[in-house]
Specification:
The chain is an alpha+beta fold. It contains three helices and twelve strands. It has a single domain, classed as Electron Transport, Fmn-binding Protein, Chain A (Pnp Oxidase, Chain A, Roll), CATH 2.30.110.10. Bound molecules: flavin mononucleotide.
């Protein structure tokens, strides 16, 4: 019993410290999009994105199971990662607030890419992936996808997030 109490206290400390540490991790923000059975787009703002391998070209995203786009990605087996420019802060806010969900694809210039998935026309890059593996861990699902298409634009200042607020890269 005593060991359990210690374990809970330790774990709460670790969570707080982990959150605080992650606040020091400067992340480039993306909009992850997907498409439903009727062809409607869905999405969320996400920093949990990484390349996985170049052979095969593949990437991963970590999506909270409560996010409205999570079951849609599971069903379609598709996701697109749109890397944002600093000027995209307003649209990013829309993609990170549940009460603005209905406005997500009204702002910005959206185009339809392979397999009917939407990409942001002026994103730094849009990477379209087909899901090959799903790993459930804690509150999130890790989706690993093979890259099926890539759209790139000229290099611009990225939209960053650190210490709980949006930032720009200097220099
Ligand atoms: C900077 C930033 C980064 C985020 N990164 C992620 C992420 O990597 N994965 C995730 O599931 N949610 C992430 N979120 C939260 C989702 O964008 C947010 O919960 C969104 O509202 C979920 O979509 P829904 O409201 O349609 O469920 C992030 C939010 C912000 C502001």
């Amino acid at each position: 019993m005593r060991a359990n109490i210690l374990e809970v206290a330790y774990s709460a400390d670790v969570v707080a410290e982990f959150k605080s540490a992650m606040g020091r991790f400067a992340a480039s923000i993306t909009l992850v999009t997907t498409v439903d059975d009727q062809g409607y787009p869905h999405g969320l703002a996400a920093t949990a994105f990484s390349s996985v391998s170049m052979d095969p070209a593949s990437a991963l995203i970590c999506v909270n199971r409560n996010a409205s786009a999570s079951p849609i990605i599971k069903r379609s087996g598709l996701f697109c990662v749109n890397m944002l420019q600093s000027q995209h802060e307003p649209i990013c806010r829309i993609f990170s607030q549940s009460d603005l969900r209905d406005k997500r694809f009204i702002e910005g210039e959206w185009k339809t890419g392979v397999r009917g998935i939407c990409y942001l026309a002026d994103a730094q890059a849009s990477i379209i992936c087909e899901v090959v593996q799903e790993i459930e861990h804690g509150t999130h699902t890790v989706f690993i996808g093979n890259v099926i298409d890539v759209i790139t634009q000229p290099l611009e200042q990225p939209l960053m997030y650190m210490g709980g607020r949006y930032r720009e890269l200097r220099g």
